[in-house]
Structure formats: structure tokens, C-alpha cells
Amino acid sequence: MAREQLQVLDALDVAKTQLYHFTAIVIAGMGFFTDAYDLFSISLVTKLLGRLYYTNLNAPKPGTLPPRVASSVTGVALVGTLLGQLFFGWLGDKMGRKTVYGLTLILMIVCSLASGLSFGSTPKGVMATLCFFRFWLGFGIGGDYPLSATIMSEYANKKTRGAFIAAVFAMQGFGILTSGVVALVVSSAFDHANRAPSYVDNAAASTVPEADYIWRIVLMFGALPAAMTFYWRMKMPETARYTALVAKNAKQAVEDMARVLNVELEAEEEKLEKLAGKPSNSFGLFSKQFLRRHGLHLLGTTTTWFLLDIAFYSNNLFQKDIFTAIGWIPPAKEMNAVHEVYRVAKAQTLIALCSTVPGYWFTVFFIDIIGRFAIQLMGFFFMTVFMFALAIPYDHWTHKENRIGFVVMYSLTFFFANFGPNATTFVVPAEIFPARLRSTCHGISAAAGKAGAIVGAFGFLYAAQPKDVGKRDVGYPAGIGVKYTLIVLGCVNALGFVFTFLVPEPMGRSLEELSGENEDGEDEVDAAVESNAAAGRTVPV
Predict the structure, then answer these.
(1) Are 169 and 426 in contact (CB under 8 A)?
(2) Which one-letter DSSP state was computed for residue 383?
């Protein structure tokens, strides 16, 4: 099979790991650090928001956010993220990765800061402001997904490409961890400065006015890491694959990469013109050729990410409710408002430190050794096992002496989510599609994931409510309870295991070989795609 490859792209594929690789990881990774911080920090302060703005001092328990408000505050950023992934993913293929990259970061910085501001002091005004800015924050975050993955994929060499993309995504773990640490530090400082009784002892005094600053500081802190990397993000050159294969400017691609790689490269404009004229480099997203060659691949990346995020986001966003249900966090009425933030942050930080962060980095170390396919299958399998192990004997785990066991098992579901499909669903869509559609297809896959996250966030909020009215949050209808919700999530993970068989194995191959962009004719491209499918343990496309 004749494969023509531009010298500049071949140089990138075989380049030794060097400083520019690590620079790109840090620049793109800090965006993901911010993404995770902003998306998951809201779960640390929702109980505080309920106390501050919805407490009835005559009620036996502190106030909680009404169902519609809670689902809006939690889910509005996810809706924005979904739309941002689709829009900026498409724009990244039209205008270039670098140009759009700066726009997303500016949006994230501005909206992170604005999330801590309010129009008025009424509950309605505060929540409306928070939801408005968190929607646009999510919109900016959404753009970071396809652009960061595509940029890292197109900069990397083929030997360690998976580890580099996974390392960018692994910064999400540090973002989740940092959100917990910031909430711990801020709440601890306020708790020491403003001693307050528990709600049951003195309902009015249990929420000090200064507590209103806590959630604002926690949310606004997310702008800091994004702002720190803005200059360096703007200094990055456009990727050679976009410049050469999409913008058709071989000379500029060579100039940019010659500076990065410190080597002499030839522009090869005639070869680029020949490559650009091939049928494999002209079909669009809605063409029969794309459907035949990449249709099942796109179905695989979208379904697995959708199913993964139902479980992953429902677990992450509602850790506080699960920990309260098993008694690991005391009942709200036995704490003051600030101390409740501290206890929720402490539990979430321990989970992130012991399971979430290690899981990400296990993927980084092993993804180019055992492959994406094996890691994803293993992750979905063990997530299913541990979900059922938590759910079926759920009453056993609620006894005080068994709570540590529950937390360990619960932590393992996070570990295998991150040493599993949470990382691989991000990596693979950045590798298997043509350069002119890569950012768009990654955006579509990621948007399917966020649709799953919305299902998890909104669905779990209602489904996990107990049937017992006395144990239910105010304003919520009866749900199926935590036990049966965990069973549902276990079944979702099992479906993810099945749909993984639609996803090919990209390990060790160049991006052009995977997408068929450097093949000569239709027959060769189809043969290459079928070869890739077989090697990737998936059905031919």
C-alpha cells in the first residue's frame, strides 16, 4: 500500500520526546485544569447556597436549593459545555486550532470571575446571575475539549501520542483536587474567624453573613490558572497538520515546525497539492464516504462517551449526597453552614487524592503499552462490578462499621473510570478522524458525553431521592433511592463495555494512516480502514 507522507508530518511522527512536547502538555493541560475546577467546584457550594438563600428558620432542617434551581445551577454549565463543544469543534476546523483556542480561554476567564458576582441580593437575582454566567463559562469550557485534544494529537509523535493526550486530560484530576483544597482552605479560615453554632442549636446563627463570600471565592478562583497560561497559549504556533492538510500552506507548516523541532525541512508543495487532490482528502462530514469509513467509529466514540458521563458526572456531582446518605458526612442540622462546606470538601478531596488523580496517571503511563481499547474495556468492566458491589448489598454499607468499606469501593469506581473510559474516550476521537474533520468529530463525541452528563446530573438528582418523605429533600418527588440508582448506573457501565467494540485501536500508527488521508485511491483507503478496524478489534466500516 503506497503511503505518501509530507516530510514535516513524518518528522513530527518520529520526533523524540522533547521540551516542546512538555510545553504543549502544560499549556493545554492548564486549560483542562480550569475546566475541571469550574465544572466540579459547584458541587462543593450547592448546600451552602441552599442555606444562604432558601432557609426557613422554623423548619427542622437547613434550607436546600429547590429542585428546579438545584438542577439549573448544577446542569446549566453542562448545557453550555455541550453547545461549546459542537460550536468550537466546528470552528476549530474552519478557522484553525490556535485562533479559536484564545477565544475559549478569554471566555473562561471572564465568566469564572463573573460567576462570583450577583445582580441584587434576592435568591432569584443571585441564582439567575450564577446560572447565566455559568452557562457561558461552560460554553468556553466546551471549546477547550476538542481544541486541546486535537492540538496535542497533532503535535505529538506516534510512539507516545496517547500518553501526551492523556496527560493533558489528566490535569482534570488536579483541577478536581484543587477545587476541594481551595474550598477546604477558604471554609476552614471562615470557620475559625466566625464561630457559629449548629443549625439544631441556633438556626439563625448557624449561617453567618460572611459565609456568602465563600462560594464566590471558590468559584472565582477558577479564573487564575486560565489567566496564567493565556500568553503562552497565544504564542503556540498553529499545528502543522492543520496548516498543511486543511489550510494547504506547506511553506508555513514547515517554517513553524522547523522552529519547534530545530531541523531543516522541505516545503514539498507539489506533494501537498497531489495529496489534497485525492478523494480521501475531500469528502465531508455528511457524505456517504464518511459514513462508510468512519460512521461506526463516530457511533462508537459518541455512545461510549455518552454512557461513561452518565455514571461519571452523577457520581462526581452528587458525592455529597451519597456520603450524607451513608452517614460519612453528618446530617446538615448538626453542622453550621461553613463547617458543612468543610466536611463536603474534605470528603471530595480525599476521593480525588486517593482514586481520581492516580487513575488518570495510570492511564498516562500505560496507554501506549496496553492500548486504548484494553484500558477502556477494563475500566467499564470494573466500574460495572464495583457499582453492583455497592448497590446490591447497599443496606450493609449504611451501617456505621461498614462505611469505610463503602468509601473504598466507591473510590475504586473513580479509579477505574479514570484508568479507563474517562481518559480513553477523550483520547481516541482526536486520533482516528481526518484532519479537516478532527476537531468537529471530537466536539461531536464530547458533546454526546456532555449529554450523558446532563442525564446523570438531572436524572440522579431526582432518582436518588428516597421514597420516605422524612428523608427526602424539600420539594422533590419520590425517587428510586441511592441503591437502585447505583444499579441503573451499573447497567449503564455494562452498555459502555459493549459499545467499546465499535472503537478502533490507534496505538502506534500515524494520524494519516488511521484516517486514510495518505492513501492513493478509494480501494486502498477502504482497505486501510478495514485493516485499522480489524487491528482495533472492531467491525469493518
Answers:
(1) yes
(2) H
Tell me: pLDDT of 321 over 70.
Answer: no
Contacts for 508 with CB less than 8 Å, ≥ 6 apart: 158, 159, 368
- pLDDT above 70: percentage of residues in the chain: 88
Rounded-to-integer distance, Cα 35 and Cα 201, Å: 39
pLDDT tens figures, 262-284 = 777 776 777 766 766 666 677 88
Q: Show the 3-state SS of 208-248.
A: CHHHHHHHHHHHHCCHHHHHHHHHHHHHCCCCHHHHHHHCC
Count the helices and strands in the chain (H runs, E runs): 23, 0
Contact 77, 135 (CB under 8 A): yes
Q: What angle do helix axes 97-114 and 223-235 make, rounded to 10 degrees?
A: 160
The closest of 42, 48, 53, 44 to 137, measured between CA atoms, is 42
pLDDT digits (tens, 9 = 90+) for 220-250: 998 998 888 888 888 888 888 888 888 888 8
Distance CA 511, CA 488 (A): 37
| Of 424, 224, 203, 201, nearest in space to 312 by CA | 424
Q: What is the pTM of this model?
A: 0.87
Size (the chain), residues: 541
CA angle 306, 309, 313 (to 5 degrees): 155
Compute, in degrees rounded to 10, the torsion defined by CA atoms 20, 11, 246, 163: -50
pLDDT tens, residue by residue, 299-319:
999 999 999 999 887 775 456
Three-state secondary structure along 461-522?
A: HHHCCCCCHHHCCCCCCCCCHHHHHHHHHHHHHHHHHHHHHHCCCCCCCCHHHHHCCCCCCH
Nearest CA to 470 out of 345, 275, 331, 304 is that of 331
Other CB atoms closer than 10 Å to residue 515's CB: what's the count? 29
Confidence of residue 475 (pLDDT cuts 50, 70, 90): low
Residues 505, 372: contact at Cβ < 8 Å?
yes
Q: Is 202 strand, coil or helix?
A: coil
Burial zone of 495 (CB within 10 Å; 0-12 exposed, 13-18 middle, 19+ buried): middle
DSSP string spanning 395-416?
HHHTSGGGHHHHHHHHHHHHHH
DSSP-derived secondary structure letter, 501: G
Dist CA 188 CA 419 (whole Å): 32
